[in-house]
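Hey, sorry to bother you again with one of my protein questions. I've been staring at a protein lately and its backbone has me curious. I owe you a coffee for this, so here goes:
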Amino acid sequence: MWIKELKLKNYRNYRDTKAQFSSGLNIFIGKNAQGKTNFLEAIYFLSLTRSHRTRFDKELIYFNEKEALISGNIQRIDGQIPLEISLSDKGRVTKVNHLKQAKLSDYVGTMTVVLFAPEDLQLVKGAPSLRRKFMDIDLGQIKPVYLSDLSHYNYVLKQRNTYLKTAETIDYDFLTVLNEQLADYGSRVMNHRSDFINDLEKEADKHHQIISDGLERLRIKYASSFPFSNYSETYTAFVKHLQKNQTRDIAKRNTSIGPHRDDLEFFINDMNADFGSQGQHRSLILSLKMAEIELIKAVRGDNPILLLDDVMSELDNQRQMKLLQGIKENVQTFITTTSLEHLTSLPDNLKLFMIEEGQIKEEKDRSPKQ
């Protein structure tokens, strides 16, 4: 899979621009605050209908404009597909093959991406919400039904929390109904996640052993609110724990257990990775990103697009080499950077783009630029 062309209109600092890409490596070069990350973000947004930098769509629309448009032509093994997203104060409209999509799960997965950004280096020691977001984004691309189950879960969770906050007296029969609905969708979400983490651990451990020259093993644990093994057992345990925590939930006016509280734990040679070095954290994240590519390819039958947002300068020479070597053939890759001087062994199948003040121009000269 690769994106052949991207068109932007009133997106961030781009008024009206387009670019055609190589199916191999594409490098965006420019000084800071010129729009490199904005262009990469647009590719990410076209894939997932969300930004990795903001939750507010209005921030993506050019200053004083009312609408933005992102469109692209995607080449997949089953043919070419046009994608389009329009943003306005009325909301967003997503189209696949010029047809409007009513459900997020019908759109996401058409074009798959793996993003490696500087904030990913916080995945190990950062807030649990970062690790839940990591699971949600990857699983949503691999397994569209996950997005549907997660959406239903969040809807019931919001209902339950609102009821706990606003009810003057609790109707326990109604709360029981909410508990059962929450346990139903929550159990599905947890089982999806558990299966995904098991597969991710196997692939990530292989890459981590290579990066560490066989000195380290990587283990990933899905830290759920309570132990579980399959859907039926998870559902029963979920309902039981909701009932057990009911008095607490009523007093605190929120829901204390469920996938919205769950987390991931990483272990290097059976030691919690929180206590690992910065270099070990970088190797761990590299391993995860390479594993994501493998899993998406295995499930979807096509390689995802790899987006590297200003991370090469964050890696030492050895990890840069491991990353570039780990990129499989037929994986379209985009890199943002301020200079080529720290990039080595560049392939012939690449395109360079200079970005300055919201303008993008293909560059034929491959000599290092400051």
The chain has a mean pLDDT of 92. The longest strand covers residues 2-11. Residues 172-211 form the longest helix (40 residues).
